[in-house]
Amino acid sequence: MAKDTLRMPLDDLDRRILATLQKDNRLSFAELAERVSSSAASCMRRVRRLREDGVIVADIALVDPQAVGRSLTAVVNVELESERLDLIDAFKREMRSAPEVTQCYMVTGDADFVVIVMVEDVAAFETFTRERLYANPNIRKFRTMIMLDRVKFEPRVAL
User: Fold this and answer.
1) pTM for the full model?
2) CA distances in angstroms from 56 to 40, 52, 76, listed in the order given
3) Which one is the CATH code of 1-62: 3.60.90.10, 3.10.150.10, 1.10.10.10, 1.10.730.10?
């Protein structure tokens, strides 16, 4: 089913399945069924439908950034010079293609975009800013906040 078409509404079992899978998506269908008080066959059908409908968009492994040498996380607020659609789209493409960018949000308020960058160290962040931000003539200014402590990180949707 395409993303822009209507989806079947989620019932309580769907929500329990999603909440459980967001905590651990490596469960067998039998284990999932036990945790959500259902049958393995029902869970299998529902998970398949949730994937087909685009409710479940990916099954991924969350990696500790420090364990792989990405000890610096920066939150960058970016203000564009011009808000022409072609320039906004170009900035979006640039951020999507940057491996250092793990999240990018178009926002309201003082900034046009909030970008989350994960790199090895300050030198790598400087390289990122030179190549991706300073080199972009449509960036009026950007402000950076360096993360000191990851107090909470839960890449899940509250259900």
Assistant:
1) 0.85
2) 18, 8, 28
3) 1.10.10.10
